[in-house]
Amino acid sequence: MRTAVEVVQRFYAAAQAADGAAIMALLHPDVQVHTAPGMPCGAGGAFHGPRDALTRVWGAVFADFDTAPYAESWHETTDGTIVVTGHYRGSARATGRPHEAEFVHLWRVTGGRISWLHQYTDTARWHQALTPAAG
Hints:
- The chain has helices spanning 4-16, 20-26, 50-64, 123-130, and strands spanning 27-35, 45-48, 65-76, 82-92, 98-110, 113-121.
- It is of the alpha+beta class.
- A hairpin with a 5-residue loop joins β3 and β4.
- α1 (4-16) packs antiparallel against α2.
């Protein structure tokens, strides 16, 4: 069986490839996803279940952005929570404007699948990329 860290690493690889099928395969049937309030595309809030999370979070983001999360530091807590910090990097499809936003992801893995994610990010950076450049 894969370790929790390996499961989360596979998630980042799938997100970088914008591979929805691979993301779905990694999600526990009861996955809970909590994303930063204020995320564009309606992607901020609490989502339950793989289909809801894929459609309303990653699908919505991938529709409006050519972006991916890039992990930079990894920590595992004594209760098994995996803490990952890094940056989202990419651009908004409608404006072509680049964006880079820091993130912190808290993960839990149950039975070899992602069962919980809590995301913190700088939502203002996301919105700036969606705003057409002045001039």
